[in-house]
Amino acid sequence: MRKNKKIAAGSAMAFILLMGIVSMFSDMTHEGASSVLGAFLSLAGASAAAIGFTSGLGELVGYSLRLLTGIVADKTKKYWPMVIVGYIIDMAAIPALALIPKGGWMAACCLIIIERAGKAIKKPAKDTLVSFAASQEGQGKGFAIQEFLDQIGAFIGPLILYVTLSLKGVVDPFASYSICFAILGIPAVITVALVFFSKRKFPNPEKFEPETKNVQPFRLNRQFLLYIVAISLFAMGYVDFNLITMHTAKLGMIGEKSLPLLYALAMAIDAFSALFFGYLFDKIGVRTLAISTAIAAPFPFLIFGTTGKTALIVGVVLWGIGMGAQESIMKSAVGAVVPKAGRSTGFGIFQTAFGVFWFLGSWLMGILYDHNITAMIIFSVAAQLSAIPFYLLSARKH
User: 3-state secondary structure string, the chain?
Assistant: First the structure.
């Protein structure tokens, strides 16, 4: 019996690692693109408000659609087909940005939204598959490992662009960014190939988590609702990195070719933050998010309220800490609270709320940036800090 449990745990960890490698190449693609996307959209003719609106709308589509795809995944149990279709759409949109001409910022914005839609199709099903395997290892640990590998890819992607821009030189930044998007097609193809390999290797990951007797249907209880309020406030106040790169490029705080390095730094911090806070979650639960939010909250003042490079770098480090904790722990909490039968729906509800408020916050902060940066900073910090009491209330047992 003990031997069988060891084998099951070993297979579950192998699946988590394999899906983490898929995420690594996936993030190499779209996070590599994110490192220059704000500057690219600005050169294509988009305003700060348009960039904020597009970033927010992309997240809105990418998250709100997950409510539907989560329900579909639970009803049909067709987890792998949804993961495969989502990854194909997600990975095709980034290299397509290389075809956008100058002045074509609206077409670029459409591709960003399509990429987010692809992510929405795959995400609840993928997170559910990982949660089945994570039940063998601990939800915090399982998602922390997944996020760590994910963010290693997010670190490497911007570095690839940095090397590309350094070798080519940035005579025409717009043309240089277009070449970068084309190069990101390589990890995009590898991602899709690995997804098909993963499906062949582990056709039924739901078997990692045994069925429990007398399963109660998932309900929106008080604890889960308080958690939704907390993550919604957090999302509303968290500045999208596209606005950060646009601000940095606009003020000339960092050279055009070094912008990817700034994002690479954020992703490296994100990776180790996810690992640390994911393990901490298995010990103290949702209270971990209150700690990470309190640490990260001052980043808007450091990035937007000063013009020094040191303050910018510290601010980006804090941004990475908050994002890393969010990426690993928020999903871990859903996996721990929601029953197996309704887990995709639970992920869908959580991710929809997150996306709606990310959209509203990004749009508002883009407008505030154009009119009053101080007001934008105050709004961002206040929204993040207001999430902390709700995290603590959600952590209490009812």
Answer: CHHHHHHHHHHHHHHHHHHHHHHHHHHHHHHHHHHHHHHHHHHCCCCHHHHHHHHHHHHHHHHHHHHHHHHHHHHHCCHHHHHHHHHHHHHHHHHHHHHCCCCCHHHHHHHHHHHHHHHHHHHHHHHHHHHHHHCCCCHHHHHHHHHHHHHHHHHHHHHHHHHHHHHHCCCCHHHHHHHHHHHCHHHHHHHHHHHHHHHHHCCCHHHHCCCCCCCCCCCCCHHHHHHHHHHHHHHHHCCCHHHHHHHHHHHCCCCHHHHHHHHHHHHHHHHHHHHHHHHHHHHHCCHHHHHHHHHHCCHHHHHHCCCCHHHHHHHHHHHHHHHHHHHHHHHHHHHHHCCHHHHHHHHHHHHHHHHHHHHHHHHHHHHHHHHCHHHHHHHHHHHHHHHHHHHHHHHCCC
Mean pLDDT of 326-344: 67
Q: Rounded to the nearest 5 degrees, what angle is found at the Cα of 127, between the Cα atoms of 126 and 128? A: 90
349 CB contacts (<8 Å, ≥6 apart)?
Answer: 67, 70, 220, 228
Q: Which fold has domain 2-201+220-395?
A: Growth Hormone; Chain: A; (1.20.1250)
pTM of the full predicted structure?
0.73
Stretch 316-330: mean pLDDT: 84
Q: How far apart are CA 276 and CA 291, in angstroms?
A: 12
Average pLDDT in the chain: 83
Report the amino acid identity of residue 184: L
- pLDDT beyond 80 at 5: no
